Structure formats: C-alpha cells, structure tokens
Q: What sequence folds into this?
C-alpha cells in the first residue's frame, strides 16, 4: 500500500530513528536488514490472516459484538502503544523478506491511499471518517497515540493526564464515542457548581454567566468576586454598549479585555472572564481574540445590545430538559479515562497506524504525494493519493514551508503561539480535608499571582471516579499560563509541593498527599490571539490550493475534543470529495526537503 525505501532495521532492542524495538508477546518480529536502496511495497493483509499479530489495544470490536471493557481502575487497553507497533488496525502490514518489489495486483489496488500525519484525536478521527473511502495509514512521531489524551494510574485509579471531559452540548465527541462502541460507557459529570478563589476566599461562580460574562449583575454582587467599585463599573458600562457598537464594527477584531473591559470594567474581566479563558486556553484576556474565543457572544452583541443581555439571551436559548426533568449534563467522560477513546477510535478506523514514524517532509509526486519519514541519516518514504496534516501549528507549518503555493499557510501557522502547562494530580485521604470538597473545583484569576490557575475536585466532579476511589479525594491542579514557562522549569517535586501548598491555603487540606503525579504539556494549547479567524481563513485558502491536502486539529476551530473531531470530519470530507472526483496521482510540482517534523 505504501512504499518504503532504504530503511534499515537492527535487531530487537536496537534504536532506529529514535525508536526502541523490544521483543514482546504479540509484537511484530524484527525484520531482516534489506539491501540498501531496495524498495518494497507494504502488502495489505486480509482480516482473517492468521499470521497478523493484532495488538491487544486493537481488539475492541469484532463482528460488531465485542466491546472494550472499560473499568474505572487502570486499564492496559488505554495505555501507550509501544513504538513500532501497528496498532488499531485490521489491515496489518509487513515487509517482504526477499528484497523484491512486490507487484501491485488488481486485487490489492482498488482503494485510494490516504496518509494522516499525526496520531492525536484529530488524526485518528480523520482516519475513522475516511475508513469507507480509502486505505488509511496514520503516521505518529511519538511512541504512543492520543496526543493530549493520556491516562495512567494514581493511587491505583485510572485518571486522565490531559483532557478529561467532552462538552456534552456539542455532538461530535459523544457521537464519535457512540459510533466506536463506547456510547453506553459515557458518564456525566455531577451537578455541583464551581468557585473562584479570589480576594482571600473561595467564592461561588455565578450560575448565570456565559464564559464569565455575567447575565445577572445582582447575582454577581452576591458572589463577592468583584468589589463594590468593580460592580459599579459593570453596571455603568452596560449602559454605554450601544454608543460603542458602531466604533467597534469599524475597529474589527479586538482582544477580550478591550471589548468586554469597555462594557463591564476591568475588574469583571480580570476576576471572572480571564479565569475561565485561562482554564480553556491557558491564555490571557488582553491577548485572546473576542471573536475567536467567544463567537456566540460576539454574534449576539452585533445588534448593539449590552453584553449582559446578550449573555442572558444565550443562556435562555439553551433547550429545556424534557418533561421538566433535571438539566442535561454539561460534561461527559469515560470510566477508564477519556483517553480510552483513543484505542477505540484507532481500532474502529481500521487504519494502519505507525507510531515512532516522524514525517519530516511532504512533496507532490507522480503518484500523488510523497512523504519522507525517519531520521536524516536513515530516511524512508511513503506515497499516498492524499494527505491530512493533523498536527500542531509549528510542525504543520514546517512541512508546508517548502511546498509551492503553500507559503501563506506556512506563514499563518508560524504566527500561532502556544502555551505550556502542567497537570499536578494529588490523591489525599478524605480525612485530610477539614471540610469535604464541594463543587467541581475552582478557578484562580491571574491577577492574584498564584501558580495554580485551576483546580478540579475530580472525585466530586465525576461520581464514577468517586466510586472507584473510596476514601480518597483525587485533585487535579493546572499550573502555567502563557508567558509563565519559567515556572514550569521547576522539577516535579517542586511543582507538586507548590500545588499542594496553594491547595492547602484554599481548602485547608492537611498533610502530604498519598500519591502525586506531574504531567507536563509543552506547547499544548494554541493561542487564539487577535486576528485568529482571519489567520485561519488564510491558512485554509492556501491549503485548498493543494489538491488532495487538508489540515485539522486544535489550531483551527476550537481546542476542545469535540471541536478537534469536527475539524477532522471537515478535513476528511474535503479529501473524500477529492478522491470521489477521481483525482489520483497529480504531477510533481515541488518538494519540501527543508527540516520539518511532527
């Protein structure tokens, strides 16, 4: 299916292109070294091939009747896929052993080939959406799939290390989970509210707010989040919104703080809006785009009505629960961790998934697209009819930088900055808290100068997790905002202690945690700064000029899991349309031999 040239494999346990190959039960055996310069096709094996070693993580569904059994305790099915494994595939491929190029027969060549570069949830979702129209290979440079979705055990309980929730009101995440057989496993978050830790104490987050914009100023007054002066500024600012609207339409996109600060005053922005944006983007309101981060509110205020009224209208437009029942859950997750979605989607995609496969360049070729992977010393190549780049901004930009006609896309991606952060997960006995934690957690305004920007009381937020961890309180502390990279230079022990100390100040928790885990996410969150929507439009226009090429991921339409899945579906639709039109094998027009990567 894909052609690979001049790849040299060493014996088991040796390192090739940064990947460790170790003998394990169920792993592919090490391949014999082939003659230099010899090209070999990757034949597609039938699903009933008894000689195809199928990884345990791929065995999630068979004949539509078997389902991955997800428990709340740590599950090996959700663990990292070892490098070199072809995971989640019903069409496992292998090398021919005789050094010859195997001819492409009519039985083997009916389907177009698509390469998906990037094995995070966006890349895996794209592979899944393309499963019926192409033979898909996913290239992931890391040793495991999932990107920012990962799960591991703490205190013998499976707890997500990255993203932990699906926004329930967006159907893309829950819909994909259902399609891959996990719909019955979805668990709602509890109904408890959240708080803001500011002005010396935990204060309830107003329920009538939209991304921190208050819909009820009297409720805001009762929360104590802002001072009397801040509340007065919010009341006065709302009366001036109509006068400012005409000027704002001429000014174009603005930062959140500029737009909302003019209407609600700086204190409401600093102590209410900024913490919610920080929890989503790890960004700052004076840099983030109002149009990109709050598109619904931006649209609702274009008629000149006060932002408080627009927020109220958006909240009131939410569908009421049927029959007057309890409100629908805001978030959903999985009992084995949200990262359990990764092996399920991988398997359901039936893609040939290659971890430890760093793509360093893409170019047009006579057969379509040619990918260069591996190390500079020992490169190998693959060809495809179409390519999906499901990568963060920087590596996607590097791959596009030398592609004729894609300069605008590369330049736009180079403008996207990212924020790094760390998740410190702590497990305490119930008795360590003088008062049992209430609510799902709390947010911390940047103006208060704390290192921890958000805290989740995981065993309160997720009732299924509480059932799996009797006698324990599991707490997730999010550390780091854009511009605070120096803070993240501390070692794990220092970060864990810093998080514990601030948690103790906020909640009164005593003693040391029974277990602690620090997970670092470097450059994890793209920043939707002022001008982001125009930037994305230019990137997509440039990519659209490249037949058989599409992009998806958190850079474009939202950083949440459902938004990433939606962007993957759009990219898959573009590629499917291209293939259905019969476009195969464009003439070569250039090459990206410059340094790039995943």
A:
């Amino acid at each position: 299916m894909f052609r690979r040239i001049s790849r040299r494999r060493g014996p088991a346990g040796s390192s090739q292109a940064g990947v460790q190959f170790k003998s394990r039960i169920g792993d592919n055996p090490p391949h014999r070294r082939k003659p230099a310069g010899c090209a070999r096709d990757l034949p597609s094996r039938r699903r009933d091939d008894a000689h195809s070693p199928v990884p345990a993580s791929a065995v999630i569904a068979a004949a539509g009747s078997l389902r991955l059994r997800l428990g709340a305790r740590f599950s090996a099915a959700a663990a990292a896929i070892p490098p070199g494994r072809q995971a989640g595939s019903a069409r496992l491929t292998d090398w021919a052993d005789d050094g010859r190029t195997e001819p492409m027969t009519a039985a083997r060549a009916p389907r177009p080939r698509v390469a998906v570069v990037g094995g995070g949830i966006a890349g895996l979702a794209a592979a899944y959406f393309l499963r019926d129209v192409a033979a898909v290979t996913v290239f992931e440079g890391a040793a495991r799939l999932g990107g920012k979705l990962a799960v591991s055990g703490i205190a013998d309980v499976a707890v997500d290390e990255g993203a932990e929730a699906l926004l329930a009101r967006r159907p893309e995440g829950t819909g994909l989970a259902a399609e891959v057989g996990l719909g019955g496993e979805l668990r709602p978050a509890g109904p408890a509210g959240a708080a803001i830790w500011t002005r010396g104490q935990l204060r309830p987050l107003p329920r009538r707010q939209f991304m921190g914009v208050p819909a009820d100023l009297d409720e805001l007054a009762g929360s104590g989040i802002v001072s009397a002066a801040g509340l007065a500024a919010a009341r006065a600012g709302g009366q001036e919104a109509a006068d400012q609207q005409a000027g704002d339409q001429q000014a174009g996109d603005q930062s959140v703080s500029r737009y909302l600060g003019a209407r609600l005053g700086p204190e409401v922005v600093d102590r209410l809006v900024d913490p919610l944006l920080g929890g989503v983007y790890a960004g700052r309101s004076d840099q983030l785009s109002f149009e990109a981060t709050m598109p619904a509110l931006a649209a609702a205020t274009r008629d000149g009505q006060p932002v408080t009224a627009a927020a109220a209208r958006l909240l009131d437009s939410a569908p009421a629960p049927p029959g007057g029942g309890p409100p629908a859950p805001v978030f959903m997750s999985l009992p084995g961790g949200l990262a359990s979605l990764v092996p399920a989607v991988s398997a359901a995609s039936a893609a040939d998934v290659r971890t430890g496969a760093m793509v360093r360049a893409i170019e047009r070729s006579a057969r379509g697209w040619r990918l260069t992977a591996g190390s500079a010393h020992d490169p190998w190549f693959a060809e495809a009819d179409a390519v999906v780049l499901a990568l963060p901004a920087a590596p996607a930009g590097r791959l596009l930088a030398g592609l004729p006609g894609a300069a605008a896309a590369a330049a736009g991606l180079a403008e996207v900055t990212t924020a790094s952060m760390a998740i410190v997960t702590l497990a305490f006995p119930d008795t360590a808290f003088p008062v049992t934690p209430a609510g799902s957690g709390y947010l911390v305004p940047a103006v208060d100068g704390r290192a921890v920007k958000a805290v989740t009381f995981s065993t309160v937020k997720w009732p299924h997790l509480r059932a799996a961890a009797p006698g324990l309180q599991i707490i997730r502390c999010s550390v780091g905002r854009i511009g605070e990279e120096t803070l993240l230079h501390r070692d794990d022990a220092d970060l864990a202690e810093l998080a514990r100390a601030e948690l103790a100040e906020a909640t009164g928790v005593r003693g040391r945690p029974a277990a602690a885990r620090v997970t670092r996410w470097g450059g994890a969150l793209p920043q939707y700064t002022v001008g982001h929507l125009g930037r994305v439009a230019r990137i997509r226009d440039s990519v659209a000029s490249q037949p058989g090429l599409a992009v998806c991921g958190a850079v474009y339409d939202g950083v949440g899991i459902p938004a990433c899945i939606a962007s993957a579906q759009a990219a898959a639709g573009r590629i499917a349309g291209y293939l259905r039109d019969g476009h195969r094998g464009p003439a070569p027009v250039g090459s990206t031999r410059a340094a790039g990567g995943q």
